[in-house]
Amino acid sequence: MRLTLASLAALAAASAVAAGASAQSSSPSHDHAAMGHAAHAQAAAVDHSAMIPRATPGQTAQAAIINGQGAEIGKATLTQGATGLLIKVETTGLTPGWHGIHIHATGQCAAPFTSAGAHINHTDPKTPHGLLNAQGPDDGDLPNLYAAADGSARGEFFTTKARISQDGAGQWLWDADGSALVIHANPDDHSSQPIGGAGDRVACAVLSAR
Ligand SMILES: [Cu+2]
Questions:
Q1: What is this structure's pTM?
Q2: Region labeled Disordered — which residues (predicted)?
């Protein structure tokens, strides 16, 4: 559809220019040429958005989720889609209830997981935290994860602000220092700073190509 429109507009512009060249003194053809130029400018803008690089779908990876004692309690499965990243979380060992879960900037998971750094948020200027924040969200924000009475939790999260493929929109998680998926002790309120009151970091998974 976009290509067809662009092609049509380009054709219209080309024919308008030709008409202008063959009958330069005639004012109606000048009007025609001006209209052609306007159509061409619009088509160029549409073309540009169509050229934003897209990720390579199908790339997938697994990352071990560890607790504060360094024990493996679950796994995260990352699947690259064409327009974003799907993060599947399957874990045990959490306190029952809601937990904030975010993508942090550094692929280091040594308890208490502060080495994972802040959220991935390399946009300039930095965007405030919070999926429900009018000025947010930051690139590492995700909805909360719910742990059942036995401490097990499963969920899928989709973000357009992160990727494991080298091309595409959003932060590349497999950069030189990797990234980390961090589960917090408390739920994220999705609006307050800096992390929505999510509290301590209780579990972590290193995200890297390795
Ligand atoms: Cu976090």
A1: 0.75
A2: 23-42
